[in-house]
Design goal:
The structure is a single chain. It contains seven helices and twelve strands. The chain starts with a helix and ends in a 6-residue tail after the last strand. The radius of gyration is 23 Å and the shape is elongated. The chain has about 230 residues and is α/β, with parallel strands linked by helices. It has one domain: Rossmann fold, CATH 3.40.50.10420.
Length: about 230
């Protein structure tokens, strides 16, 4: 038994290296020649890949040229208001502080924007027709949007309680994969990762949407210039 123990400890000592070695330096010196991303932004259109993967998650995805963004937002909010109906105000949308003013310059009559100061209650948020936000970064590999709840994104409740979330993603905010995306973020901030509308299949494997968050996620992927929408 003692001989087996000595052999095991000897192997551990050999693997650990000579005594006195700095473990942090040894960790930093480990080879890391592994693949960081399956799609190199230099040779792949990662923005189109993001749109494809987000649609796979049943998000509604539209690619729009930057000059047409305000008109597209106006159309989507008008359509959402018309579809909502019911006794509650159907044209009220909550917008977080810091949302670019230019996004909301062409709204039609009947659309009311509601701020979140003082913070709206969960009941008030639930009565909204939806919420409009930007994002911090998006991930092409998984079709995921990340919010860090900075300017134009609002607190977490704003994007979890309303049944409709319209989020604007600029092409230059799309990272190839998770590692690249998190390199853009401040780890001290809270992060919410969104991959499609909220859905669960916990009960009898039947997919139900809108249980833990918005039933509808509508993404506008903004391309620079005057390209086709």
């Amino acid at each position: 038994m003692t001989g087996a123990r000595d052999r095991i400890l000897a192997r551990i000592r050999t693997a650990a290296g000579p005594r006195g070695e700095d473990p942090d330096a040894a960790y930093a010196a480990l080879p890391r020649e592994y693949l960081r991303a399956h799609h190199d932004p230099a040779s792949h259109d990662i923005a189109s890949l993001f749109a494809e993967r987000a649609a796979d998650y049943r998000a509604v995805v539209e690619q729009v040229p930057e000059p047409g963004l305000a008109a597209t937002i106006a159309r989507i909010l008008a359509d959402r208001a018309a579809a909502t109906g019911g006794p509650a105000p159907s044209g009220r949308f909550v917008v977080p502080a810091g949302l670019p003013d230019g996004w909301l310059t062409e709204l039609p009559a009947g659309i009311t924007l509601v701020g979140d100061a003082p913070p709206l209650s969960a009941v008030e948020l639930d009565r909204m027709a939806g919420v409009v936000t930007g994002c911090a970064v998006a991930i092409a590999e998984t079709g995921t949007i990340i919010l860090d709840h900075g300017a134009g994104q609002g607190r977490r409740s704003l994007t979890l309680v309303p049944d409709f979330h319209l989020v604007v993603v600029r092409q230059d905010q799309v990272a190839a994969d998770l590692a690249d995306a998190f390199a853009w973020l401040d780890p001290a901030w809270p992060h919410t990762l969104i991959s499609g509308p909220s859905a669960t299949s916990d009960i009898e494997l039947i997919r139900v949407e809108g249980v833990h968050g918005p039933r509808t996620l509508h993404i506008l992927l903004v391309r620079p210039g005057h390209g086709d929408a």
